[in-house]
Structures are given as structure tokens and as C-alpha cells.
Amino acid sequence: VDVERIEVLRGPQSTLFGQNASVGVISVITRKPSFTPTGSLELGYGEYDAMTARASYSAPIGERVAFSLAGNYNERDGYFKNLESGHDLNDRSRWDLRGQLLFNASDDLTFRLIADTSSIDELCCGVSNLQDGPTGAIIRAIGGQIYTGSPYDRRGYFNKDPYNKVDNDGVSLQVDWTHGNWTLTSITADRNQKAKFDYDADFTSADILAQNLNESKIDTFTEELRLAFDSGGPVTGLLGAYYFDESVDYQDTLAWGDDIRPYATGLIVGQGGSPFTLSAIEAALGLPVGTTLLQGGQGQVITTKQSSEVTTAFGQIDWKIVDRLTLTAGVASANVRKNVSIAQTDTDVFSSLNFVQLGFGQAFGALTGLPPTPANIGTHLPQANLA
After folding, report:
1. In the chain, is it the N or the C terminus that has fewer CB atoms within a 10 Å radius of its CB?
2. For residues 209 and 255, is the Cβ–Cβ distance under 8 A?
3. Is 381 helix (H, G, I), strand (E, B) or coil?
4. Residue 74: its pLDDT value, please?
């Protein structure tokens, strides 16, 4: 809401803006608190009961301190109907709030404190079914439903509502000290984000894939020091150092639903009555029949952690040779250290079985009456494809 200007810097900007700015930079500069009372309010209303509000206010607190407060609110009903739950999906529910304090301690020293928080909590996103394919009959046979109308009806059957939740907050302190033609700037900042997404990844009301959950947590701390100088002549410059410390935690959970086994059985039966039914495989391998393979709740959890630490030193000099010609020279050196760990836990029995050690050859022969040669296995295995 309180944006002062947006700068578009074309070409490599890695010297001053870091290693990821090799193509260019879009720099958003926010407005400082004003010592003159000022404010704005913008309201909007639209289809699906869409309501928006944008507001800002700034005023002084004494002679040397000013504050500003800005916020944004955006809400709208969903336009995609989940026929299973009766809820409207693809809604809009998000807000943000940002506050600032500006303290002019003296003519040469200023402090600027900024804090912000924002939230997204929405039922997103609905998915239209384009074609009722060959597995549709199996879905309905196990009690599920698929919407077969026009995709532009924006309707579907999902046994759970998808959701999207994101929370952000941050705080920063900027200190500027000017001495003659020299200005020393320090910017200390801390940011945090938590996100959580889950949706019905089989896109039917059947409970095939019960969970497709993604959770992440990001904590970032940065410190930047800059020393800008103006020689009073044709040369100006900037020297600086930057420190970045970030930790990322991410977890991805996939779990079968209670309908996965009858769905897989339907796939096998639909392939000409293959002898490789799940119960037959369990019996041939000596496993408990009916309670081992493709059970609800089985699946996998992948946990990823990453820590990053970056230290950068940079500098730039501008030499104004003539009024319309300036030579710019800069250099930056960055040291990056990353630590990454990945852990995967599988509870899906089917994918964890070692069929060679369990005697798949003997089971194949018992089920088909044929020797387990590559040709025979190649002929029969496609009929048992569970994908």
C-alpha cells in the first residue's frame, strides 16, 4: 500500500544486489513515515461478494518521531463447487499489515523500524475433470463419483477440500549516519514464513490418495552494512558487506486412502482377470492376506532440511567523465555454505518388498503355471499394472 516508487534496473546487478541478480532487479522502495498527517482509503466490491480494502495513515509523534500504518484486506467467495462437501473452492481470504517508526535522532542520525505480518487462508484449488476415462467405472464401483459435465461448470467431487495456508512476518531496523560526504547505513532484518498445502490429488470423491500434504518453514536473518561517499567532484562510490543466514524445513507426506486396495483390485480385474491379484500375491509370498498390501494410511514422508550462510563484500565507483558519460566499476565476492539433509520414511509395504528375496520366481510359476522367464514375465506383468 505505501509504495513510494518501483525501480527497474536492467542488466547484471550482482555487484550491489547479490549473486541472484545476474539479469536485473525490480526494486520496490516503500514510503517513509511522514511528519505531515496524511492517509488514504480505498474500498472495492465485486462479483462473488469480493471485498477489498486498502488503507494507510502516517503522522508525527512529537518533533522527531513519526509513524505509519498500512494494511490490505482481500476476501471473495469461491466459484468452484465441491459437490461432495458442498463447499465453494477457489475463494480469496488474505490480509497484511505493516507498521513503521521513524526517529530522527539528530540531523545526521536516523532510525527506521519496520514490522509486517500477512496471512493467506484459502480453499484452493478446484480441478475440472476433462474426460471420464477408463478408470471412471472403477471409481464409481467403489463408491466414488466423478463430475462428467462441462469443465466450465467449475464443479467436481473431492472427498476433502483443498486448502492453502501461508503466514509471513518480518521486522527490520535501518540506521543511517551521515558525516560530511560519508553515509553509513546498517540494515538488520529477520523474516519467517510458514506454509501448509493439502489437496485431494486423485480428484474424485473416492478415498484413493488420502493425504498429499506439503509443509514448510523458512527463517531468514540478514545484516547489511554500506558506506557511501561523495567526493564532491566527479567520483562517488559505495563499499559494503552483507550477511545472510537461512534455515528451511520442508516435509512432503503422501498416504494411501482406504479405497486404494479396491481401486487397485478393480484395475487388475479390468485387465482381463490377471492372476496377479493383491490377495494372490500376498498368499504366494506368505504374507497376511487382505491386510498387507496397499492399505489405507500407508505411504511415505520426505523430510528435507537446508541451512544456508552467505557472506558478501562488494563495492562500486562511479566516475562522471563528462555530463553525459559515466564510467561505473564494481566488484563483489561471495562465500556460500549450504548444508542439506533428506530423510525418507516409507510405510507402503508393496513398494518396500524385495520380490527377488521373497521368491517372486516361485510365486510367478505358482500363479501362472509357467517358468519365470523374461518373455513370460513380460507377457503377464503389464496385466497387473497398478499405476
Report:
1. C
2. yes
3. helix
4. 97
DSSP 8-state class, residue 269: H
- β-bridge mates for residue 319, sequence order: 235, 327
Over residues 345-371, mean pLDDT: 78
- Between vectors from CA 30 to CA 27 and to CA 36, what angle results, nearest 5°? 155
Question: ∠ at Cα 273 (268, 276), nearest 5°?
Answer: 60
Q: What share of the chain is helix, strand, coil (3-state, %, to 5)?
A: 15, 55, 30
Q: Quickly state the pLDDT bin for 358 (edges 50, 70, 90).
A: low
**Which pLDDT belongs to residue 80?**
96
Which residues, in sequence order, are bridge partners of residue 341?
305
Half-sphere exposure of 362 toward its Cβ, with a 13 Å CA cutoff?
A: 8
Cα(89)–Cα(45) distance, integer angstroms: 19
| Residue 46 clears pLDDT 80, i.e. is over it | yes
Edge-to-edge, what's the strand order for the sheet holding 209-230? 38-46, 50-60, 65-76, 92-104, 109-122, 163-179, 182-198, 209-230, 235-256, 299-322, 325-346
pLDDT, tens digit, for every residue of 272-326? 556 667 888 788 777 888 888 999 999 999 999 999 999 999 999 999 999 899 9
Grid cell at residue 151: 469443465
**Grid cell of 65 as nine digits:** 518521531
Q: Indicate if the pLDDT at residue 168 is higher than 60.
A: yes
Which three cell numbers, joined as nine digits, stand for 83?
459437490
Which 3 state secondary structure label does DSSP give 180?
coil
CB 254 within 8 A of CB 299: yes
Q: Which helix (H) or strand (E) holds 53?
A: strand 50-60
DSSP state string for 157-204: --SS--EEEEEEEEEEEEEEEEETTEEEEEEEEEEEEEEEEE--TT-S
Give me the helices (H) in the chain, please.
14-17, 136-141, 260-269, 278-284, 349-352, 360-368, 374-380
Instruction: State which amino acid sits at residue 105.
Output: A
Mean pLDDT across the stretch 24-52?
95
**Identity of the amino acid at 88:** D
Give pLDDT, residue 38: 95
